[in-house]
Design goal:
Blueprint lengths: L2 H12 L24 E16 L26 E16 L5 E14 L21 E12 L2 E10 L19 E12 L2 E11 L3 E3 L6 E3 L6 E10 L3 H9 L4 E16 L19 E18 L2 E14 L14 E14 L6 E10 L51 H6 L5 E15 L2 E14 L11 E14 L3 E12 L15 E11 L1
Antiparallel strand pairs: 1-2, 1-20, 2-3, 3-4, 4-5, 5-6, 6-7, 7-10, 8-9, 10-11, 11-12, 12-13, 13-14, 14-15, 15-16, 16-17, 17-18, 18-19, 19-20
């Protein structure tokens, strides 16, 4: 057997599953094979999603800055009901080259999370059509794959996903809103029954200037580029192999270790801060940054004939030698981060069973600074006691940011972490869940699911109410799924907030919030 053929078999046996929209080391390259002629494959789904949100400000008044916990109708600040309807057409396209194990792949999202009725043609009262939005097409991924004698090489804008998706998430789930992608190269090769993966990522480059042709650009200052190097070692099965082993009463134990190092020597804040941008860039625009960051992640999955246990744990360490964003105004004291995250998923019950139960749990380290900071921004101000949001580091007074943040597309609940905070951060949760197949007709089935989420803050000082308990949420689901690609899902959620979400400054207790969502998906 040739070396190239052996590599192909080894990579496929190691488990590189997934459609054209494959994400991450465990998904890339599974469909590479020599083909007699050029082939094009298209996969995707049209998603429409409608929501009713009731009392998500929890009737607990405003924070110290005078803002409610969640947006309220401007015409009636005491109003309870908000609505939203949006859509997205996702298309994954693969072009396979004949007589070669080579493919070029593309993911394009059309009308990505577009609110229906958000682009009326003319005055709203008289519109009879909708205008095309400026960003109707979003190219999420564009990359090539080729099988070489020494391994599988992928290059371009690739999807990024690892393990459960707690740390980095490709956003491939039916209800996901974002998803990670990285510009760079990835090389995967079999090694002693494992897959060794190396990746080099151009995380941030620029600022740029025009070249003479005006159609290409030039990176002005290479020393300010942010680069990331990742090393991973994995042992796993693809979905089909894992299912065959399960049905044969065999146990599958899969695992992976992921290490990623990021660095930046200098920085040009004027390249991304509009207020600081001068008419021309010069030596005074470049300042030392000294960023070093390390992420370590361990993923484990145990699959028995009627039981699945999956675990992911991560540690993130970082140091920024010079945190100032203003050239010439140096702080001279480094900022540090030490963050920890853990996610556990389990289920007892085979997929063909009418029922299944399980227990999930998670932990995200916290920071004692007031507020949660799920989506840090450069202009974040220091949090005040009683606020839901606030910067976790405020040099030179507070030089640490130790709050770990789950990826927002790693879904835990529907109100507290998804809508109010934004993601799991500075918190611990426990999530029992159950499912039951109510009806199976032809190629479709009706399934009921129920989960309950109890959530607590790691640092009580981060919560608006100054207490650790955050809330208990019930999340029932009723879903009809057809094997041909159509599904309709009805989600409900009710959050019973606890002391951590109260407003003690105004003597107000947080009241329950509710959410109802209906989602239609047309897959192809």
């Amino acid at each position: 057997m040739s070396r190239q053929a052996w590599l192909a078999l080894a990579l496929l046996a190691a488990g590189l599953p997934g459609p054209a929209g494959a994400t991450g080391f465990t998904d890339i390259g599974q469909d590479l094979e020599q083909r007699a002629e050029t082939e094009v494959e298209v996969h995707g789904a049209l998603r429409l999603r409608g929501e009713l949100l009731y009392n998500l400000d929890l009737d607990r008044g405003v924070d110290p800055a005078g803002e409610p916990l969640y947006p309220v109708p401007p015409g009636d600040p005491t109003g309870q009901l908000l609505t939203n309807v949006d859509m997205r057409l996702r298309t994954d396209l693969s072009l396979f080259v004949p007589r070669a194990q080579l493919a070029v792949k593309l993911r394009v999202d059309v009308l990505d999370n577009l609110g229906l009725g958000s682009d009326p043609s003319g005055p709203p009262v008289g519109t009879v059509s909708q205008e095309a939005p400026e960003l109707a097409f979003r190219v999420k991924r564009a990359y090539g794959e080729v099988l070489l004698p020494f391994g599988l090489l992928a290059a371009g804008r690739l999807g990024s996903h690892w393990g459960l998706g707690m740390l980095t998430n490709g956003g491939d789930c039916a209800d996901c809103d974002s998803g990670d992608a990285s510009d760079g190269l990835a090389l995967m090769s079999p090694l002693l029954g494992h897959v060794l993966a190396l990746a080099y990522t151009f995380s941030s480059t620029g600022p740029f200037t025009d070249r003479r042709s005006d159609s290409r650009f030039l990176d002005l200052e290479p020393s300010d580029d942010v680069r990331t190097f990742t090393l991973a070692l994995l042992k796993f099965h693809n979905d089909q192999a894992r299912e065959r082993r399960r049905q044969a009463d065999r146990t599958s134990f899969e695992y992976g270790l992921y290490a990623s190092y990021r660095w930046q020597d200098n920085d040009i804040p004027a390249g991304y801060l509009s207020l600081a941008r001068p008419e021309s860039l010069g030596p005074g625009s470049v300042m030392a940054r000294g960023l070093q960051a390390l992420a370590l992640d361990l993923w484990l999955r145990l699959t028995l004939p009627r039981f699945r246990l999956e675990l992911e744990g991560a540690v993130m360490l970082a140091e920024i030698e010079e945190p100032s964003l203003v050239p010439g105004a140096l702080l001279r004291e480094p900022v540090y981060a030490r963050q920890f995250g853990l996610a556990l998923e389990s289920e007892y019950g085979a997929p063909e069973d009418d029922w299944g139960v399980g227990l999930d749990a998670g932990f995200a380290s916290g920071d004692p600074a007031p507020g949660f900071n799920a989506f840090p921004q450069l202009d974040d101000t220091a949090g005040q006691p009683g606020a839901l949001r606030g910067a976790q580091a405020r040099p030179p007074y507070d030089n640490r940011f130790d709050d770990f943040r789950f990826h927002p597309d790693y879904r835990v609940d529907r109100i507290l972490f998804r809508e109010l905070i934004g993601t799991v951060t500075d918190a611990v949760y426990v999530r029992p869940h159950a499912r039951y197949r109510l009806l199976q007709v032809g190629q479709g089935e009706l399934v009921a699911q129920l989960s309950a989420v109890a959530s607590f803050a790691v640092e009580p000082a981060s919560t608006p109410g100054g207490e650790r308990p955050l809330g208990v949420e019930l999340d029932p689901t009723l879903a009809y799924v057809n094997e041909l690609g159509f599904q309709v899902v009805a989600d409900y959620a009710v959050l019973f907030p606890l002391g951590g979400l109260d407003n003690p400054a105004q003597g107000l207790s947080a009241k329950p919030a509710q959410l109802f969502q209906v989602r239609l998906a047309y897959g192809f």
